Amino acid sequence: MSDKLVYFFGNGKAEGDAKMKEILGGKGANLAEMTNVEIPVPAGFTITTEVCDLYYKNERQYPADLNKQVDENLAKLEEAMGMRLGDPENPLLVSVRSGAAASMPGMMDTVLNLGLNDEVVEGLAKKTGNPRFAKDAYRRFMQMFGDVVLGVAHHDFEHVLEEIKAKKGAKLDTDLSADDLQEVIVAYKKLVKDQTNEEFPTDPKEQLWKSVNAVFGSWNNPRAIKYRQLNDIRGLIGTAVNIQSMVYGNMGDTSGTGVCFTRNPSTGENKFYGEFLINAQGEDVVAGIRTPEPIDQLANEMPEIYKQLVAIRSKLEKHYKDMQDIEFTVQEGILYILQTRSGKRTGAAAVTTAVEMVKEGLIDKKEAVKRVDPACLDQLLHPMIDPKFKYTAAAKGLPASPGAAVGQVVFTAEEAERWDEQGKAVILVRIETSPEDIGGMHVAKGILTARGGMTSHAAVVARGMGTCCVAGCQDVKIDEKAKIAVIGGKEIKEGDVITLNGSTGEVILDKVELIEPQMSGDFKVLMEWADEFRKLKVRTNSDTPHDTTVARGFGAEGIGLCRTEHMFFEGDRIDTVREMILSDDLAGREVALKKLLPMQKSDFVGIFEAMQGFPVTIRLLDPPLHEFVPHSDKDIEKLANKLGVTKEKLKAKVDSLHEFNPMLGHRGCRLAVTYPEIYNMQVEAIFEAAVEVEKGGTKVFPEVMIPLIGDVAELKMLKDNALVVAKEVLGRHNSKLEYLIGTMIEVPRAALTADAVAKEAQFFSFGTNDLTQMTFGFSRDDAGTFLGHYVDQGILEKDPFQELDQTGVGQLVEIGVQKGRSVNPELKIGICGEHGGDPKSVEFCHRVGLNYVSCSPYRVPIARLAAAQAALKNGSA
Amino acid sequence: MSDKLVYFFGNGKAEGDAKMKEILGGKGANLAEMTNVEIPVPAGFTITTEVCDLYYKNERQYPADLNKQVDENLAKLEEAMGMRLGDPENPLLVSVRSGAAASMPGMMDTVLNLGLNDEVVEGLAKKTGNPRFAKDAYRRFMQMFGDVVLGVAHHDFEHVLEEIKAKKGAKLDTDLSADDLQEVIVAYKKLVKDQTNEEFPTDPKEQLWKSVNAVFGSWNNPRAIKYRQLNDIRGLIGTAVNIQSMVYGNMGDTSGTGVCFTRNPSTGENKFYGEFLINAQGEDVVAGIRTPEPIDQLANEMPEIYKQLVAIRSKLEKHYKDMQDIEFTVQEGILYILQTRSGKRTGAAAVTTAVEMVKEGLIDKKEAVKRVDPACLDQLLHPMIDPKFKYTAAAKGLPASPGAAVGQVVFTAEEAERWDEQGKAVILVRIETSPEDIGGMHVAKGILTARGGMTSHAAVVARGMGTCCVAGCQDVKIDEKAKIAVIGGKEIKEGDVITLNGSTGEVILDKVELIEPQMSGDFKVLMEWADEFRKLKVRTNSDTPHDTTVARGFGAEGIGLCRTEHMFFEGDRIDTVREMILSDDLAGREVALKKLLPMQKSDFVGIFEAMQGFPVTIRLLDPPLHEFVPHSDKDIEKLANKLGVTKEKLKAKVDSLHEFNPMLGHRGCRLAVTYPEIYNMQVEAIFEAAVEVEKGGTKVFPEVMIPLIGDVAELKMLKDNALVVAKEVLGRHNSKLEYLIGTMIEVPRAALTADAVAKEAQFFSFGTNDLTQMTFGFSRDDAGTFLGHYVDQGILEKDPFQELDQTGVGQLVEIGVQKGRSVNPELKIGICGEHGGDPKSVEFCHRVGLNYVSCSPYRVPIARLAAAQAALKNGSA
Q1: How far is CA B762 from CA B327, B699, B706, B733, B826, in A?
Q2: What residues are paired with A114 via a beta bridge?
Q3: What DSSP letter does each residue of B302-345 carry, written as one string?
């Protein structure tokens, strides 16, 4: 290690630079870097992380030379700023802040306005002509120093403050006058004396060293240690301490403060953007007492400063090669940049900025693709709440399907359809949805459920449809019979207008303005660049020609999951499906299946046509049969009449389908082991449809997928059945159509025995929804009651139904891939759970060598971008 | 390979021996072996498996020399038997049978009575003085040969036979006279001619070669191939063919036949046992038309033969070192042994035989321990149906808990308790049982359920109690309201007497005689020998002092699983439990928990005292809370009154506990993440109890087990909570009690992340019931509807809830062991699922290095024996 313990920055040059993060910390290195590129940063110096390390190694003693180096640098600082610490005539005030190599926001201590005492505060008052400002700075300093350094509790200071406010009849801190604040200062001194038995220190040098001690000390406070554990921050030797001159924008009309963005953070437009206030501090901009002016106006009010700022804008963007969010202060005609960082931006701005920066030569395509957070593309694909509109949410649920929707509340799917026919926009509010609600869900602008998680029926279907959905909103109590909901304590009746924000999970009891998404040219360009880099194919989960067309528009390269059961609910089909299920024997089932065959065929025709030769993976019937039958006495009676059986007999049959844990029950391929005729009908429909579309001149590539297998013997039996049917149909039509028969890997045992399974499968598709359910033992329909708790308490970092659990479930995926390919190195492997549209999960899929991911249509662009980033990150693009 | 294609046996010596199974097949080698030790086996010869191999390799051509070798051996055979093939005066009849190195019973073809034609049959009639016998042998031969060799379907022959029987007014085959049979023979000839266009072959040599061809051909018939696949029989080159002289016991009063056992197969008593018939064939013994005489009687009727037989009995036992089941025939004063094999025996006989044979010096202890099938010990531990009693079962369900029970039918647990108080023996008949039925289950002699599998609530609880149970009996329809059941089509009312056979799953609509088990001294001796060899410890699953005492009596070395929830149902406790569950806040729950604390404590005191210092693993609360609350409107109202809340409020609370898939829901440690106070109370009760028992002078070793963890963070949180409570209690009592805190591995993710989990766990216990559920995705409460299908169709070999699925679930166990021990090589690991009492699963547990298995009290001896066999088999004892 070096003998140099302190690094200066100021006056246009710094002893450190951006590369010295390890010893200067992130903040110190950044301040040095800005100084070096001649950004006018308030001068200061950084005590290195190595000092922190030595401090702890040496029983909280500093290296002998530190005192001298700090003194030297303080002198340089005083010279640079033309002010002196503790000089009542011209006082230098400083901040003392932590700054480690990794960001640990808010975890360590800070002291601001250091250098004030009874004498200096009067000088400051005189110099600024603002006694209130000076007294307020002093009392803030005392409070912060008292808390951080002297160990007097923050709430004790607040208590004193509140007492004086009460006495003065002041509501806000700002209602206190300079004299009032003087009273506070006196009371603070007493508080400190009472609690510590010592006077509040008046010597600025003593204040400085005690603050430095406190900041180094805070490196090992319990919450900082915890934060490093939780965020897996390891190998750091300590924090640096930054001592920097304070600057103030409220020193009169030649002072001011502002925030600006180098480009428009909403649209990405390459135009200087921001706002400022004359004679104000940064907190005044935030407090909203005065309305800031747009940054252009600064050209009139402080033309010289504006010119400097425009130059800095350009310099910072070129230097950091990204859109910057800049905080500045003008103190008595001198511009200081307090901070610059990559600006937060909307999805649209992210895309436009990235694409335009490539055109401007600032960055290359790879960088542009890496730069945009895939998740933010979501904003480009759904209507959203106008960001200018301020609202208060009455309740908050899970952000189950993004976008926003305004509409009138209805409580049943039937009402939704009826109201829709009358041209009304409706929000469907349900305790939970079931497949029978599909019609109402389709017409609803938004869906709100009281129960269910991110992969509940409502959430999955809504995302598939691109319909806004807030799910599992526990603050919503619904009385479906009475057609009343209590949302966040307020009663809502059928027909009342509410707004859902599916991107945040918020429910607003009012009409809120929405804006329609713009599918800009830049977006398309970025997607094309992403496609150049990615290795993973991106397919879609789609059950209808409409969704299929939407997904193709978003660039889907096939269907990874076409669920056939949704088709079973459409229109009158459900009656035929029920007839089949409730038959007593094979003959009865076959009669009903014969009626279903042409319906299923027509579904597949539409989907094959829309996919134009891209592969279409069709999953054979998966859900337990009880999902298709009615359960209420009234509905059973109705159906009994239709089928011409007694109500009792039908009820007995329906009851016999009841299961304790349907998710682990008689479903998926297990249905077909018992009733092979069901899958046989579906396979016949698939190949009849394929042949018909092929004859019409459109290419078709069907992939038949057998769900829920746990043992190769199930697959073998059902595959053999399917082959017989497929060959029969193709033979009959003299077709040479190519196709695959494969399976989902969604039962842990299938992954564990993937080597055996791969002998019979032409492809694998990981059904990570079920795989997650079974690997965790979490029912996604029930986990809502405790999963929130788990994430809140840090037991799980994420809801594993949203982001693939790489630690546990991921092991099974890797085992499945490795064992499957050990038998068949060319095995095509994809993923069709909800995770296929989650960027981190997509990266995982890339890393373990899948061939494709499949996700809902509206997440296809996200997956394309995430796949490109995965390839770039893992060096394979 | 050798030039020798055929091996002779007869006249007291054979060319082969027992060691030549590979080329002579099992049967051929055994016949040779018997011949060599001078057992009078009917002479014959074996064509080797190598001939079969060559036959297939050479387009179904035999080696050139075979013809000659067969002729030579046939001549030797004729000489040995003093009869000639095709000689009308003194005809030799032979059997032609398959016999591979591995047993494939019934899979390949056999021809009996070969050598008959129109001429020979008359000679045979004359020689035996029994034309009916001769004609019947002929027609049987024609039918068998016609089917096997000529390809005329068996049912076509049967059809002809039935027609003639109808014409003659004969009900049974035996009602046909010699002349009638002659008609059959003529008709058979015509049938063969009609179907094959050829005459039935009359040349015995032709018959012989065609039969040999057929037997070799049957090696590769589809069912034989399938059988070898299913039974994983590999590496065999083919079947041998055995040609052996037929002998007949119905050639007059110097002939006879019988079956005998070298010891009593019911009791194991070392006394010659068996029965015989003079002038009869083996099938006459079976048919039961004549009553056979006890074997002792043979000493009077055929003293010389009896003497020979007694000598053979002794010789065979000494040779095979096991109790033998011997079939013999006396043909005209000459004794032939047709077959000897290890005799099937009852559990009692198996134990006694093994122990006595050690005393006799026939076998050593290891052999004795290996000799007894652990499963058969079950018979020694429960009342059973008197084997002498013949009955007809009306229905058959799953053999869920062994033993038998007779009693009066009741349909509710309350009735069961009421009737029991009146001194009546009851059988509790339920659609399914729930924890609320526990009282009734406890008093019932037997339990019959219509739904649920081998690990359904009824089955698990019944096995735990040692109560006979038939579960999932689909032939039982129950109307609980009407108090009527239809069992196998017959209506049964409350109070009717039925009998259950829990060892077979049979339901008998009658009173059947039961016998009480004898806990013989031999049994105890065998168990002690087993203990000398086993490495695995054997613990028990027990929730009560009573069960604990029973299990100690059976040799349990601790409790592997003490479920605390069963205690929650006892007596009035359920009210307090409900009060706790239905509280709106922590304060309310704590009030109820405080009331529960002394009750739980007293449970543990009893169990600790009964276990006398052996480790007691206590699983903290596991089931979802809704299992404890009432569900019917009436019960809810009752409880609401008790708790002083409105019915509506209570109902809403009960409804809010409903889950779609409770097995994957809010249960196990998830409850304690939400309500830590529940586990804290339980831990306090455990340690308060432990300290009390310790003070009383009895050693205590509690192991606190946290269930259902899927992530180490859950365990860490709950373990830390438990440690605080434990330390507080022990500190308060100044106790230095040792204890462990560990976890169940029952969620796949826990096994996959066992390295992380092991950092916080002091022991692992594999909960293979849940692990099986989640790894297969099978709900054990629902799998009954399809699991039978799976086993029947050969998709699964076994119900994985009965025998641990080593292929899939076993991988997770191995991963868990390996990863857990990678972090903590000394980690104590056990299993506490139902598999802990299954012998094959116990062997698996031994092999993967577990420390102990735990099973229900009545399976402890089985596990002890299985553990010893596992150690012996795997060379570690």
Answers
A1: 58, 20, 11, 24, 9
A2: A94
A3: SHHHHHHHHHHHHHHHHHHSS-EEEEEEEETTEEEEEEEEEPP-
User: What is the interface pTM, i.e. ipTM, of the complex?
Assistant: 0.79
Q: Is the CB of residue B759 less than 8 Å away from at least one CB of chain A?
A: no
**Residue B4 region by backbone torsions, left for phi larger than 0, else alpha for psi between -120 and 50, else beta:** beta
- Give the whole-number percent of chain A exceeding pLDDT 90: 71
Beta carbons of B795 and A714 less than 8 Å apart: yes
B267: buried, middle or exposed (CB in 10 Å: 19+, 13-18, 0-12)? middle
Optimal mutation site among B744, B775, B811, B815, interface A, most CBs of chain A within 10 A: B775
- Taking the C-alpha atoms of residue A91 and residue A127, their distance in angstroms, rounded to an integer, is 9
DSSP B530-551: HHHH--SEEEEE-SSHHHHHHH
Considering chain B, what is the average pLDDT of its residues? 92
- CA distances to A97, B360, B366, B368, B530 from B872, rounded to whole Å, are 70, 22, 7, 11, 10
How far apart (Å, rounded) are the C-alpha atoms in residues A620 and A600? 11
Give the residue among A292, A573, A639 at the shortest CA–CA distance from A435.
A573
Distance CA A559, CA B760 (A): 44
Please tell me the distance in Å from A800's CA to the nearest CA on chain B.
12
Q: 3-state SS string over A618-675? A: EECCCCCHHHHCCCCHHHHHHHHHHHCCCHHHHHHHHHHCCCCCHHHCCCCHHHHHHC
Helices first, then strands: H and E counts in chain A: 33, 34
Tell me how far apart the alpha carbons of residues B241 and B52 are, in angstroms, rounded to a whole number. Answer: 9
How far is C-alpha B801 from the geometric centre of its chain's CA atoms? 14
Nearest CA-CA distance, residue A225 and chain B, Å: 17
What region does B235 belong to: left with phi over 0, alpha with psi -120 to 50, or beta?
Answer: left
List A residues 624-683 in contact with B (Cβ-Cβ < 8 A): 659-666, 670, 673-674
Contact B566, B543 (CB under 8 A): yes
* pLDDT value of position B598: 95
- Judged by a CB distance cut-off of 8 A, whether residue B707 touches chain A is no
Residue B832 catalytic? yes
pLDDT digits (tens, 9 = 90+) for A117-171: 999 999 999 988 889 989 999 999 999 999 999 999 999 999 999 999 999 998 8
Q: Are B50 and B2 in contact (CB under 8 A)?
A: yes
- Catalytic status, residue B846: no
H-helix or E-strand spanning residue B702: strand B701-706
Name beta bridge partners: A476: A487
pLDDT at res. A289: 58
A785 vs B657: CA distance, rounded Å = 9
Residue B842 contacts residue B863 (beta carbons within 8 Å): yes
Q: How many angstroms separate the CA atoms of A690 and B755, rounded?
A: 50
Residue B25's region, left for phi above 0, alpha for psi from -120 to 50, else beta, is left
Q: Do A664 and B773 touch (CB under 8 A)?
A: yes
Is the CB of B747 less than 8 angstroms away from the CB of A777? yes
What is the reported pTM?
A: 0.80
Question: Averaged over B159-176, what is the pLDDT?
Answer: 89
Q: Which residues pair with B498 in a beta bridge?
A: B407
Would the pLDDT of A1 be above 80? no
| Residues with Cβ within 8 Å of residue A71, at least 6 apart in sequence | none
Sign, CA torsion B127/B130/B135/B136: negative
**Contact between A748 and B808 using a beta-carbon 8 Å cutoff:** yes
- Two tokens, residue B407: 């009693």
DSSP 8-state symbol, B219: T
Residues of A marked active site are found at 457, 832
